[in-house]
Amino acid sequence: MAFSSSLAFPFPSPPSGTFRSRPTRRFRAGTAGRFLACSSPPPPSDVVVTRERGKNAKLIAALEKHNIQSLELPLIKHVDGPDTDRLPDVLRNDKFDWIIITSPEAATVFLKGWKTAGSPKVRVAVVGAGTARVFDEVSQLDHQSLEVAFSPSKAMGKVLASELPRGSESTCKVLYPASAKASREIQEGLSDRGFYVTRLNTYTTVPVEDVEPLTLKLAISAPVVAVASPSALKAWLKLIPKVNNWDNSIACIGETTGSAAKKLGLKSVYYPTTPGLEGWVESILEALRVHKQLKEAPKC
């Protein structure tokens, strides 16, 4: 497992007990993105998990196996994109050699439109094991209509664009249902290889801005913030009054998000060479190990 880290500043030391298991905190949900404490203030946490509400459970459970305490602070939420309603009609009226799906959210949105279109026969290429799992139930129930037929050697969009198989046809047609904020890397890479690409922006992300002050204070003091997208990174930076005053660690799900973190000026960035939950957990553990070493190092 390879990690990328640039340690320009020492980490501030959180209260003792960083690696001990602690009692579970209880929150009740208020308005979107708001967490309200039900009783006494929760203890400090090791890691802030930031995916959309309801999508952090697997990461939290994986970290609990290492006695790592998490604070859930969703930073983004998914909403319909400008082409959401067009997707069923496009699937009904045209035939594609490949459907390109690059995230679990893109898969969920696509499946909804695909079912509305009457479940036409499609061949899907996915990026990442997490994305593939979204299709597991459907492909098992109706493998004649939906086939997950390709994933790249590395779970990255640019690798998929370079490795997607072409048929013998002079024109190979691809449908790419994507986030409105996704780059043009995939469609341009495929177009350069002679594929004809139709992109639909079927969803987008917006930042969660209404965060309870105590929750934000606890999040800022945590040694590690775990993020799964550049959008979540940008949302986090908007919540921090001054980025130069926050120098704890960012643990990213993969290289794309890790590279974005560096470009945004973050100094302590960890990410696995292969995106996915297992590598993400290892990145978080590495960030915590470094934090503990710095905390315990003799002061000059």
User: How many angstroms separate the termini?
Assistant: 32 Å
How large, in whole angstroms, is the Cα Rg? 21 Å
What is the N-to-C succession of helices and strands? EEEHEEHEHEHHEHEHEHEHEHEH
Shape: elongated
The poorly predicted ranges are 1-39
In round numbers, the mean pLDDT is 84
Q: Report the helical percentage.
A: 25-40%
Biggest sheet statistics:
6 strands, mixed
Q: Strand share of the residues?
A: 15-25%
Report strand order across the widest sheet.
5-10-9-6-7-8
Number of DSSP-assigned strands: 13
**What is the tally of helical segments?**
11
Structural class: alpha/beta
Summarize the structure.
The chain has 300 residues and is an alpha/beta fold. The chain has helices spanning 57-64, 87-93, 104-116, 129-134, 136-141, 157-163, 185-192, 213-221, 230-239, 255-263, 277-296; strands at residues 27-29, 35-37, 47-49, 70-72, 76-80, 98-101, 122-126, 146-150, 172-179, 195-207, 224-227, 249-252, 269-270. The chain is elongated, with a radius of gyration of 21 Å.
Please tell me about this protein's structure.
This protein is of the alpha/beta class and 300 residues long. It has eleven helices and 13 strands. Helix 10 (255-263) links the parallel strand 12 and strand 13 (269-270).
